[in-house]
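thread from #wetlab-drylab

HS: before we spend reagent money on co-crystallization trials with iron/sulfur cluster, can we at least see a predicted complex? here's what I'd submit
DV: go for it
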Amino acid sequence: MELSNRPWRWEEGEYTVTRTLPWSGPGCHNQCGILVYSKGNTVVKIEGDPDIPFNEGRLCVRCLSLSKVVHSPYRLTHPLKRVGERGEDKWAKISWDEAYDLIEQNARKVQAEYGPEAITVLTGTGRNISHILAKLCYSAFGSPNMSPAFFSGVACYAPKLQLMLATFGGFIWADCSQMFPDRYDNPNWVPPKVMIIWGNNPVVSHPDSFMGYWIVECMKRGTRLIVIDPRLTWLASRAEVWLQLRPGTDPAIALGLINIIISEGLYDGEFVDKWTDGFDALRERASEYSPERVEEISWVPKEKLIKAARLYATSKPAAIQWGVAMEHHQAGMSTLLGVQDLWALTGNVDVPGGNIINRPGVDYANLPPFAWGIEDVPRDTLRNTIGYKEFPFYKGAQPDLMAEAMLTGKPYPIKMAWMQATNPLACTGADPKSAYQALRNCDFVVDVDLFMTPSAMACADLVLPAASVLERDSVRAEFVGGWWGPLRAVNKVVQIGECKSDEQILLEVGKRLNPESFPWDNVEQMLDWLIRDTGMTFSELRERCDPVYAPFHYRKYEEGLLRRDGQPGFRTSNGKFNLYVPAFEKIGIDHLPYYEEPFQSPVSTPELSEEYPLVLTTGARSWGFFHSEHRQIPQLREIDPDPEVEIHPDTAAEVGIEDGDWVWIENNYGRCKQRAKLTLTIDPRVVHAKHGWWYPVREGAEPSLFGVWDSNINQLLPSGYQGPSGYCAPYKSLICKVYRVSSKS
Ligand code: SF4
């Protein structure tokens, strides 16, 4: 499609129409073009922008409901200072200046008495907040301890990013023509002949700058599917082969596929010989995983595994779209490594219709991923990062060890916490009752959000109202590299109460605490600085309006477009796409893919499994929610009114559960209540529970905390079972039992 050159704002009848994109909160990692129809200070409706190639006018229900989020009566609109006990729901409205005074006083006190590392910045999922909170942590507070809030093993995408950098020095994703503004018409692009959809359901989740409908567009152009998932998803129901594996056995599937492809000689010998390192060791390791052994481990019939391996390896080009589910097991790194090896073994690296190495719309080499401002933290202080010694491969403060430090004061006490874009008690935090205690142990807790959350209610001393994406100017730029997208301006439409943007809060707090590192007079100057390498200012980018695409080349390793020295090869010390993890060798971790039983399973803990006989997987996405967001938006709650646990009818019948019953899901760590959904789409030995549940319209004060302890499935998940590199954790490989909620419960 042609870019439109339409203006960024115009009048249309009674409406002002603004072109922008949701980057972000609320929402997701994507950058769909939206048209915001407003009247005065009111957003009336949202439509998809047909001139943006990323989504071609399509929107999911979350963006279509954005006006309801912006104008929700539950929005925070003023800074709030706690005046009762924590959790009592007693607050006083204060000015921003008073709020900043409190932050400055407390931060300086902690810095003076305990050192800057006693302050932690606790983050939620990525997007603009990734670089903003890094700068806040490193430059404003001078602390090295930025940490994903109680998110065990930061088991979502970060493991992939670190692994890819360590093995071939780039970021890869499935090629659905997204690098080209003319999309499916681009003459250099071809659709994948086969796509493996592994551990995700993109038509619902639209993960990490990847729109699910792109797969459907490829299917219309002939792409056939292999789906690897314990649940029969919409895509699985349309697949040539569906591998319904036991949750947590993904590394065995990867090794089984590799073994078949190598032993049957289906690999791309030319690519392997010329561009990879570690083939012999990988072949030897994979040979331990015969189809029979993989069937025994994974419950996947060997015939299906063999069919999938042959179909993938003999269809060129072929792509793998990988999901977060891979990282939700302790051995998640092994699965990720196995998938990377599959790309390379089949020669599907950076080829049209394969798995392509993205490059940003504009390169921002001057902004290190997740580490803007890290130069402001002295080396000695950096060496004090929580987890620095235990997990040298991990970048930042390791969340399981951070939880431990906050609970025990070891290796040193954490006295102040800044939470932003996160709701750990209700969302991705493992062992949320310990997280509650950990936050309560802090002397001063700040929370920044659109809404009052259980985490803020229970633990915060100061709550700051964040502007939503329609209330701020920003840039959607590729600061990290893993969420590829062309450069665009984010345009403010309305002002709600006294809400401030993430950028503005960062700048104002930074100027208070460390003005030398925040030399900008206003947010626009800061945005100008961030995109200075483009040669454009923010206002010029806004006027341009259409997304900025950089030229994209396939097979960049052949042309010397990946390495800093301009030589052919990959951006690694040996110039190769490594089939193992060189950094793991150095720190004594198994550097090849391997299979390890989940820490609790019918195999590893057979006695415990007598009491908890079902494998528990969690966290499949809902149409209307992003993690714990949106439960207070009526039209989205209508789609998913209750948390649901999927149970096979045979399993339900054994324990007297009927469709729609409220049931307890319980294991040795805790229990929660969800509504039974009986379905044939899941194995009788497995149940699947929804995550991120709380009830924003219920009582906020303790003990209710918006009902956060009722349905939060993470109460069944301990902290501290991260993988050996510090990454990945068993969110999707637990055990449990289910039983009806009795009238006494
Ligand atoms: S995937 Fe959905 S929520 Fe995300 S940006 Fe696109 S329309 Fe919005």
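DV: Residues 22, 27-28, 30, 32, 55, 59-60, 62-63, 206 surround iron/sulfur cluster (CB under 6 Å).
HS: ok that's useful, forwarding to the group
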